[in-house]
Amino acid sequence: VDSLPKWNGKNWDDYISNATRSGRINNWDEGLLVQYMIMGISHKHPQVGRLGEDVSLKELIAYVDKFYPDATPAEKRSNLWSMRQGKDEKASTYAANLLSACEEAYPSEHTAMTGMMLEKFKNTLLSPDQGAHVAMMEPKTFDQAVQYAESWVVGQRIREGHVSVVKHSVASSRPVTPSSGGSMMIGNCWGLR
């Protein structure tokens, strides 16, 4: 089997159980299972496509769980306005969750609310410094805001010394460091430790 049946929009817990069981039977890794689940639920919940390719099973389930069982319109609006970025939540996942919650809370007005949601995104990122950086960059779209938020994280990791900064000299095949006067670039796929 190379896919999952489409979700009927009901019995989300049963769909999760059946999907994970199919994944075990077919020896799918988590990434493949998540992609099959996204394909199986996207016709009922198209916002899942915004989660990105590296979303975990836990993140996918938590994301969809936020919308079921159906809450009243007032509860949906309350949930939206109380949202904050989670401790281990990526900026891209948080942005997707925020936009989806806006679409759920304001189905006919969500497009007009994009500016407000962009402001909410900047003001509710986990780090106030990260939010200030995003605001300073004046993003016009959520994609830009996410890029600025993620670049801030990389910059923060560099500032904290969690990223190796090394460039090999083409002429000598030796590492070039700041003390040797050479130019710098981030190596080793961002050098994240």
Q: Please, could you describe this protein's structure?
A:
Helix content is 51%, strand content 2%. The protein is built from eight helices and two strands; from the N terminus they run ααααααααββ. The chain has helices spanning 12-25, 30-41, 57-65, 73-82, 91-105, 114-123, 128-137, 142-159, and strands spanning 167-168, 175-176. Strands 1-2 form a two-stranded antiparallel ribbon. Strand 1 (167-168) and strand 2 form a beta hairpin. Helix 1 packs across helix 2 and helix 7 (128-137) packs across helix 8 (142-159). It is globular.
List the helices and strands and how they pair.
Elements: H1 12-25, H2 30-41, H3 57-65, H4 73-82, H5 91-105, H6 114-123, H7 128-137, H8 142-159, E1 167-168, E2 175-176
Antiparallel strand pairs: 1-2
Helix pairs in contact: 1-2, 4-5, 6-7, 7-8
The strands making up the biggest β-sheet line up spatially as 1-2
Estimated radius of gyration: 21 Å
The number of E-state strands comes to 2
Give the overall form: globular
Low-confidence runs of at least 5 consecutive residues: 176-193
Number of helices: 8
End-to-end span in angstroms? 37 Å
Query: Level of helix content?
Result: 40-55%
If you average the pLDDT, what whole number results? 79
Approximate strand percentage: under 5%
Order of helices and strands: HHHHHHHHEE
- Report on the biggest sheet: 2 strands, antiparallel
The helix/strand class is: mainly alpha
